[in-house]
């Protein structure tokens, strides 16, 4: 690891220098393996947060209480430490700059990470494909990529949906994502956008079902989930 950046009270972004990195497509992930001195090893998958940048790869990791890997990566890993990384992995939940359809990104919590990679890849490629992001998070304090998200980008619309604590200026009361949220802030189904949904399993299943209910083609709804 060559750098570490705090994103929130429970999440950090770590920058890895990966020798002979083959490059990656926005939306892919890597497998990170940790091995203890007694030989015990464990592995977890983490989405890549950064756009393609040579051998530099950024991962944003959120601490999971009681987890085996994330507490170490968030609280103990320091620049100079080495990790075993395999990847990139994945070919379905990806966005490529040559795509021309409008894009709808639907993130639940740290499910923002691979979608942020797509946003950054769009910016790096100078793409003018319109992006809309619906970002569901518990409270303003859990916002990832705060400064970068506030700056925004031409052709990128961001809507935050708070589930437990909303800022005073928020018109929408706290609550889980609804079909109305997707209707008001997403793309109409006749625009035929590609929809990327990432987050906890229950969130992804509900949001994807709402999108299909609203008329989006199932093959245009791509999902990535984590947790039980």
From TrEMBL:
Co-factor requirement: FAD
UniProt keywords, alphabetically: 2Fe-2S, Iron, Iron-sulfur, Metal-binding
Coiled-coil stretches: none
Bilayer-spanning residue ranges: none
Keyword Isomerase: no
Domain of life: Bacteria
The keyword Metal-binding belongs to this UniProt entry's keyword annotation: yes
Pfam families with a match to the protein in the record: FAD_binding_6, NAD_binding_1
InterPro entries: Cbr1-like_FAD-bd_dom, FAD-bd_FR_type, FNR_nucleotide-bd, MRET, OxRdtase_FAD/NAD-bd, Riboflavin_synthase-like_b-brl
Sequence ranges assigned to domain FAD-binding FR-type in this UniProt record: 1-95
PANTHER family: NADH OXIDOREDUCTASE HCR, PROTEIN RFBI
Protein name according to UniProt: Ferredoxin reductase
Species assigned in the record: Streptomyces sp. 900105755
């Amino acid at each position: 690891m060559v750098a570490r950046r705090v994103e929130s009270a429970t999440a950090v972004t770590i920058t890895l220098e990966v020798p002979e990195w083959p490059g990656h497509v926005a939306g892919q992930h890597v497998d990170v393996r940790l091995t203890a001195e007694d030989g015990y090893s464990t592995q977890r998958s983490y989405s890549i947060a950064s756009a393609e940048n040579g051998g530099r790869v950024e991962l944003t990791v959120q601490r999971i209480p009681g987890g085996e890997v994330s507490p170490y990566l968030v609280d103990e890993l320091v620049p100079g430490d080495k990790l075993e990384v395999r990847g990139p992995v994945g070919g379905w939940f990806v966005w490529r700059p040559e795509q021309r359809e409008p894009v709808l990104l639907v993130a639940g919590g740290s499910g923002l990470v691979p979608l942020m990679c797509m946003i950054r890849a769009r910016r790096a490629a100078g793409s003018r494909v319109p992006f809309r992001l619906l970002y569901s998070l518990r409270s303003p304090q859990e916002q990832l990529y705060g400064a970068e998200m506030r700056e925004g980008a031409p052709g990128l619309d961001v809507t935050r949906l708070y589930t437990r604590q909303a800022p005073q200026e928020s018109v929408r009361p706290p609550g889980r994502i609804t079909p109305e949220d997707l209707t008001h802030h997403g793309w109409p189904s006749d625009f035929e956008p590609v929809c990327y949904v990432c987050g906890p399993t229950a969130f992804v299943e509900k949001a994807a079902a709402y999108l299909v209910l609203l008329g989006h083609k199932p093959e245009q709804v791509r999902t990535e989930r984590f947790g039980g």
